[in-house]
């Protein structure tokens, strides 16, 4: 689990370094554009965006929905992006999916958590004054864990899963440094379990639909 | 010529008459070993004598004989080598060839033999290594136990007698001779329970005086009667005959001096008949006869001293032996007259006189033993003159018939060493209950059989029951131990459930129960409860304890069982003394 987190962190940092490195010539290009096109540009494109949002996560796995009795969980998320070139950003996000239910006999609390990290590219095809719609795709790097309250002999479980995501949405620039964001994202994260679930199933589908909105600081 | 013929005819007739008279006057032949019938007019008794010591050379001495309830007979005797030998007769068969009793220590010169039989038909044998010690061994189904050397503190001297209680406890009376400082001879009783291998002993005289030649008998109540000679507090050669009476617990009930006579007084004998009457006999060399006294325990009355009237050898060292036996109500005495000819005498209680039943042998006899068989008195003896052999003479007597059609079964039910009252002895006629001291008794018909099971609410008993077959004598000490019958829990329920998280789950069986109201009613303190489990298809030997819980717990979860398992459960209770209820 820790090694997975480390990998995710390394990949994220690596991508940011890559993005930052790519951002330097983009900045130089922007400066050139600034010098020549300053009159035509009403505002300067930011290089970094850091945002927080609130979303709904509609998980696919039917067994999870049956056991935890929720088809959708609302959860916070965080994202950051670095503009590289041609309105292409390196984008990353992290959010935590949580659910809980009680065991069937002793009614001990069973907690389920997904640490969902996504990293990929985001492209803003047009930049209007107020709107910057985007599309994106990339990798989903998930780790999951179930813990059961003491008093039951049920052992916990944990694991990792990888997949992909595609997303779309738009930034709404309200101030120079502040923008709002709305998005939809679909995650495809499936895993085949070595130990079958109590009902005999061996497939785990942690993917699903995400939709939400947030606020972004851009500079 | 005619006259000559007449005289010749008369002469021939006279010769013939003389011949007939001579033949008719021939004295009856002696009772020789292989003779089968003694035709002598010894009352109506049918007397048969056989030689049982085989054909080997050398002297054979000191026979002992007994018969068990199956009619099997055993004769033991000292062989010519000094070792003890035996020959066995199985009813309907023939006598075995004499053989040495196996595993026998080397002995100097053995004497003083006695044999008794217990309820299982086992022969208990005793013999003396002269003036040294006593040896005991038993015989059943053709097998001997290893002879046991009696742990006499000093050494034995002139004595050794054996008796068996109804519970097959063996009792031996022996002499402990301690030469220093005062040549004390005391009488010890030795006890060996049915399943015990060693004897315990008890000094019954404890007088530091000279006591010897004990005889022992057991009555139908398992009381012990001992007769012995003593010179307690008397001058040398002033000897008395003493009787001791002990109860079932071997406690002294009474003692009695039977005779105080000057001169040699030897071989007191004692026997108890089927009516519980006690006969004691002894030989008095000075009076050259045998004497007897009869005791009736019911009236506590001793008869006066009766003279047997047989006469006796006058030399004291030749008058050592006599043997007394009870056959049903009758008392028989085997004794030698002054010529050492052995006779069988019978006591007539109405006339208080001894009568001669039969002369056993026309040869002088040295040593002998007397045993009451079912319908014969058995006399084993050796002839005085050398070479000596062993003979068995049987004298037909009326079969023993029980004097009463009833036998008594009695005992005590105890709990924590105290008698427990109110225990119903089911199975006995009338289902008697124990009294305030925990004792019970019941009379059963002769030959009765059945299973007796003590019962009292809230109690269990050990043994659970006793089964009897063919009861023909009083059965005493039929004791039971009672303990609180702690019960297992009540209303035990089992429910199979599944405990599940999302990824993992397990099956568990939920047990619930209630306290047993019977335990509560008895005020039992339940200190623990034990949970047992087995598969439904397994037998009861497979119960396995899986948990021990506090006494107040009413539920248990048997976790992580297989989902397709089929278990059955039991929850027992343990009281504060560690008694656990039965699983099922």
List the helices and strands and how they pair.
The complex is a heterodimer of chains A (219) and B (584).
Chain A: H1 2-37, E1 48-59, H2 62-68, E2 73-83, E3 88-102, E4 109-123, E5 131-148, E6 157-173, E7 178-192, E8 203-205, E9 208-218
Antiparallel strand pairs in A: 1-2, 1-9, 2-3, 3-4, 4-5, 5-6, 6-7, 7-8, 7-9
Chain B: H1 2-24, E1 47-51, E2 61-67, E3 73-78, E4 84-89, E5 99-100, E6 110-117, E7 123-129, E8 133-140, E9 143-144, E10 148-149, E11 161-164, E12 170-178, E13 184-192, E14 200-203, E15 211-218, E16 224-230, E17 238-246, E18 252-262, E19 265-272, E20 278-284, E21 289-296, E22 301-302, E23 306-307, E24 322-327, E25 330-336, E26 341-348, E27 353-372, E28 376-383, E29 390-396, E30 406-415, E31 418-419, E32 424-426, E33 439-445, E34 448-455, E35 459-462, E36 466-471, E37 480-484, E38 490-500, E39 505-514, H2 517-521, E40 526-535, E41 544-550, E42 555-561, E43 567-575
Parallel strand pairs in B: 30-37
Antiparallel strand pairs in B: 1-29, 2-3, 3-4, 4-5, 6-7, 7-8, 8-9, 8-10, 11-12, 12-13, 13-14, 15-16, 16-17, 17-18, 19-20, 20-21, 21-22, 21-23, 24-25, 25-26, 26-27, 27-28, 28-29, 30-31, 30-33, 32-34, 34-36, 35-37, 38-39, 39-42, 40-41, 40-43
CATH class of chain A: Mainly Beta
Q: Runs of chain B with pLDDT <50, length 5+?
A: 14-43, 233-238
Radius of gyration of chain B: 33 Å
User: Helical stretch count of chain B?
Assistant: 2
What's the story with the biggest beta sheet of chain B? Answer: 7 strands, antiparallel
Instruction: Specify Rg of chain A, calculated over alpha carbons.
Output: 20 Å
Mean pLDDT of chain B: 83
Number of strands of chain B: 43
How many distinct folded domains of chain A?
A: 1
Largest beta-sheet details of chain A = 8 strands, antiparallel, barrel
Tell me the strand percentage band of chain B. over 45%
Strand content of chain A: over 45%
Please identify, by name, the CATH architecture of chain A.
Beta Barrel
Please report the distance between the alpha carbons of the first and last residues of chain A: 34 Å
Q: What is the chains' assembly state?
A: heterodimer
């Amino acid at each position: 689990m820790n090694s997975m987190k480390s990998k995710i962190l390394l990949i994220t940092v690596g991508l940011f370094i890559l993005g930052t490195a790519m951002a330097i010539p983009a900045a130089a290009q922007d400066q050139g554009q600034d010098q020549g096109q300053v009159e035509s540009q009403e505002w300067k494109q930011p290089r970094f965006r850091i945002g927080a949002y609130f979303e709904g996560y509609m998980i696919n796995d039917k067994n999870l929905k049956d056991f935890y009795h929720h088809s959708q969980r609302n959860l916070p998320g965080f994202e950051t992006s670095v503009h590289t070139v041609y309105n292409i950003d390196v984008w990353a996000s992290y959010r935590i999916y949580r659910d809980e239910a009680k065991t069937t006999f002793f009614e001990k609390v069973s907690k389920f958590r997904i640490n969902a990290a996504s990293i990929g590219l985001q492209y803003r095809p047009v930049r209007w004054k107020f709107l910057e719609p985007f599309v994106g795709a990339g990798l989903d790097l998930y780790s999951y864990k179930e813990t059961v309250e003491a008093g039951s002999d049920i052992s916990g479980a944990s694991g990792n899963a990888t997949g992909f995501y595609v997303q779309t949405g738009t930034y709404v620039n309200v101030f120079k440094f502040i923008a709002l964001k709305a998005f939809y994202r679909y995650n495809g994260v499936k895993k085949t379990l070595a130990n079958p679930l109590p009902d005999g199933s061996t497939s785990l589908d942690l993917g699903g639909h995400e939709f939400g909105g947030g606020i972004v600081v851009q500079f | 010529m005619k006259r000559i013929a007449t005289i010749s005819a008369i002469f021939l007739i006279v010769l013939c008459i003389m011949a007939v008279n001579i033949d008719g006057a021939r004295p009856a032949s002696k009772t020789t070993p292989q003779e089968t019938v003694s035709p002598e007019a010894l009352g109506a008794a049918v007397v048969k004598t056989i030689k049982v010591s085989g054909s080997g050379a050398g002297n054979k001495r000191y026979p002992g004989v007994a018969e068990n309830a199956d009619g099997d007979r055993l004769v033991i005797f000292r062989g010519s080598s000094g070792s003890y030998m035996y020959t066995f007769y199985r009813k309907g068969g023939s006598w075995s060839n004499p053989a040495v009793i196996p595993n026998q220590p080397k002995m100097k010169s053995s004497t003083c033999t006695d044999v008794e039989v217990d309820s299982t038909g086992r022969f208990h044998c005793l013999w003396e290594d002269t003036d040294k010690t006593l040896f005991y061994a038993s015989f059943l189904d053709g097998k001997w136990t290893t002879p046991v050397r009696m742990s006499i503190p000093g050494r034995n001297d002139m004595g050794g007698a054996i008796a068996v209680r109804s519970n097959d406890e063996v009792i031996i009376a022996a002499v402990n001779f301690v030469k220093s400082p005062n040549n004390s001879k005391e009488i010890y009783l030795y006890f060996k329970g049915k399943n015990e291998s060693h004897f315990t002993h008890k000094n019954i005289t404890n007088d530091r005086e000279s006591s010897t030649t004990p005889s022992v008998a057991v009555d139908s109540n398992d009381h012990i009667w001992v007769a012995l000679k003593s010179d307690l507090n008397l001058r040398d050669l002033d000897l008395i005959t003493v009787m001791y009476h002990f109860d079932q617990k071997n406690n002294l009930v009474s003692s009695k001096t039977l005779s105080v006579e000057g001169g040699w007084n030897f071989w007191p004998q004692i026997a108890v008949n089927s009516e519980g009457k006690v006969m004691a006999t002894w030989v008095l060399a000075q009076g050259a006869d045998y004497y007897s006294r009869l005791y009736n325990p019911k009236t506590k009355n001793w008869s006066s001293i009766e003279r047997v009237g047989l006469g006796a050898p006058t030399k004291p060292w030749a008058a050592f032996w006599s043997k007394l036996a009870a056959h049903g109500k009758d008392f028989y005495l085997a004794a030698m007259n002054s010529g050492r000819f052995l006779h069988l005498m019978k006591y007539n209680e109405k006339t208080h006189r001894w009568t001669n039943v039969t002369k056993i042998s026309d040869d002088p006899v040295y040593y002998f033993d007397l045993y009451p068989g079912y319908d014969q008195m058995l006399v084993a003896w050796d002839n005085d003159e050398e070479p000596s052999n062993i003979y068995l003479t049987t004298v037909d007597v009326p079969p023993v018939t029980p004097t009463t059609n009833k036998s008594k079964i009695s005992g005590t039910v105890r709990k924590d060493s105290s008698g427990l009252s109110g225990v119903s002895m089911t199975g006995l006629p009338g289902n008697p209950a124990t009294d305030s001291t925990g004792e019970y008794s019941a009379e059963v018909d002769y030959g009765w059989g059945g299973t007796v099971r003590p019962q009292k609410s809230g109690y269990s008993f050990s043994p659970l029951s006793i089964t009897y077959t063919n009861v023909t004598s009083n059965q005493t000490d039929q004791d039971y131990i009672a303990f609180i019958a702690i019960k297992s829990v009540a209303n035990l329920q089992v429910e199979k459930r599944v405990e599940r998280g999302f990824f993992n789950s397990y099956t568990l069986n939920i047990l619930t129960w209630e306290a047993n109201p019977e335990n509560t009613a008895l005020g039992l303190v339940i200190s623990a409860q034990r949970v047992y489990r087995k598969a439904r298809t397994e037998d009861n030997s497979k119960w396995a304890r899986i948990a021990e819980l506090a006494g107040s717990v009413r539920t248990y979860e048997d976790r992580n069982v297989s989902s397709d398992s089929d278990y059955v459960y039991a929850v027992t209770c343990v009281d504060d003394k560690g008694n656990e209820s039965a699983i099922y």
